[in-house]
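We close this part of the discussion by returning to an individual protein. Part of our work consisted of pairing the sequence of a single chain with a tokenised description of its backbone. What the numbers capture is local backbone geometry rather than side-chain detail. The amino acid sequence and the backbone structure tokens for this protein are reproduced below.
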Amino acid sequence: MNYLWAGMIAVGILFGAFGGKMPEITNAALESAKDAVTLCITMMGVMSFWTGLMEIATRAGIIEMASKKMRPLIRFLFPQIPPGHKANAPICMNFIANFLGLGWAATPAGLEAMGALSDLEKERREKRAPGPIRKPGVASNEMCTFLIMNISSLQLIPVNVIAYRSQYGSVNPAAIVGAGIVATAVSTAVAVAFCKGMEWIKNEEK
């Protein structure tokens, strides 16, 4: 990625130099730097508000209640995870944060979930627990499913996009909500179908 971005910047500068657009490139770089700082301040406020709200919801027991309601979904997506395993809670937290469009709040829960799923693989290797066992360093089925679900990320409130639109002067920043729900619902449905399809194929190969 570093080489890709560096190459794009270099090509843009060279194209501007040969096209006599260097003053415009310089002005654009300065304006973009100013906009980046302003956007960071705006997003910091939004992030602080929503992560604080998530913390309040957690301490009030709302997240725990929502996690209990999500257990059938977690069981459907991750049938090989034991019901009482420690991976279930961070997976639920990650899904809830993504539902609300809180990518910042979802990331720590996602890292915790991946760590717990890695521990689950170690337990399988050591205790020969039920479920397919992978070699060390190879992602398990649960890890792959979680990653795909996290990327597809059904969002009911796309906070990031709303904040971006508000920052850049949109008349109605929240107008994206309907389209966002439809788009992420489709991507999530495709992700679930893909994961279950691969799970079925692997079961057929055994």
Observations:
- Residues 112 and 152 are 19 Å apart (CA to CA).
